Amino acid sequence: MEISINRLEHKYMEGTPFERRALHDINLDIPDGTFLALIGHTGSGKSTLIQHLNGLLKPSAGSIKMGSTELKAGGKKQDLKSLRKKAGIVFQYPEHQLFEETVEKDIMFGPRNFGVSEETAKRTAAKVIEMVGLPESVLSKSPFDLSGGQMRRVAIAGVLAMNPEVLILDEPTAGLDPAGRVEIMELFYSLHERNNLTTILVTHSMEDASRYADEIAVMHKGELYLHGKPTDIFSEREALQKAGLDVPETVQFLQKWNEKSGLNLALSKFTVEELAKQVSQSLKKRGN
Ligand SMILES: Nc1ncnc2c1ncn2[C@@H]1O[C@H](COP(=O)(O)OP(=O)(O)OP(=O)(O)O)[C@@H](O)[C@H]1O
């Protein structure tokens, strides 16, 4: 689903002496099926921005359009509800929100809350548990008897059960070990690819942004500072450094390699292993 953010502004505690502007004049169009990485230093406004996409915060000015729903400043409750249904949000440590006695009940909670029948919600639970790579036998277990990684998958299944048209991921790999991080990121990437699901990833990992994103949006002091393809964003090292960020090491390596070799290898969507493969292939082509 296409997303269009127009002149969005957000002030916390608006109209009080403690008023604080967290977003200023954000304009951002995200085409349907895009994987967008939202990066920026702590306090730059990333969470505030994504909470508007899920109807958790209302704009102080401007608007957000998601498909046919538009939420404007002073918008109706109905529009907030409609956005909430369209956008599934995976918060940091989503497993902390599990609370039912069984995995199945936990996954069914969202759909049941939105009026889906028990039978359909059960079928959905069986479908989404498979989508997150867990066996159906897990459905009858208590979520609290599962490993941390499995619990996180169950929480993600609960978000998928709402059949979101946009997936918003707020640092979804926080607290996982390196292997767990790769597994969860690969899961999101395959969900995005298989379903052409518009995905917004809030991350502090420049490596993840370079590996998975079609587009990168950089927030700085409540403003949209840079937005473009990873290759273009990573060619702005000085600007990134001004915003307290840097080009990931793998990309720096490749930029140097391209400069020295005169070859033009792709700057995004690679792991270190793929990077080594690309370099060795290009060496072979040159007869080295
Ligand atoms: N509930 C709130 N009340 C008042 N100010 C807030 C509130 N939440 C965030 N802010 C302020 O709004 C600004 C943007 O915060 P936000 O949490 O959106 O940044 P962020 O980029 O997501 O940061 P982080 O990477 O640390 O999660 C910050 O100055 C922050 O202090």
Automatic annotation (TrEMBL):
Pfam families noted in UniProt: ABC_tran
ATP-binding in keyword set: yes
Record PROSITE patterns: ABC_TRANSPORTER_1, ABC_TRANSPORTER_2
Domain of life the protein comes from: Bacteria
Biological role: ATP-binding (A) component of a common energy-coupling factor (ECF) ABC-transporter complex.
Domain ABC transporter stretches: 6-246
Main location: membrane
Compartments it resides in: Cell membrane
Keywords assigned by UniProt, alphabetized: ATP-binding, Cell membrane, Hydrolase, Membrane, Nucleotide-binding, Translocase, Transport
Coiled-coil positions: none
GO molecular function, one term: ATP binding
InterPro entries on file: AAA+_ATPase, ABC_transporter-like_ATP-bd, ABC_transporter-like_CS, ABC_transpr_CbiO/EcfA_su, ECF_ABC_transporter_ATP-bd, EcfA2, P-loop_NTPase
Name of the protein described by the UniProt record: Energy-coupling factor transporter ATP-binding protein EcfA2
The keyword Cell membrane appears for this protein: yes
PANTHER family per UniProt: ENERGY-COUPLING FACTOR TRANSPORTER ATP-BINDING PROTEIN ECFA2, HEAVY METAL TRANSPORTER
EC number: 7.-.-.-
Record's bilayer topology term: Peripheral membrane protein
Family, as annotated: Belongs to the ABC transporter superfamily. Energy-coupling factor EcfA family.
Quaternary context: Forms a stable energy-coupling factor (ECF) transporter complex composed of 2 membrane-embedded substrate-binding proteins (S component), 2 ATP-binding proteins (A component) and 2 transmembrane proteins (T component).
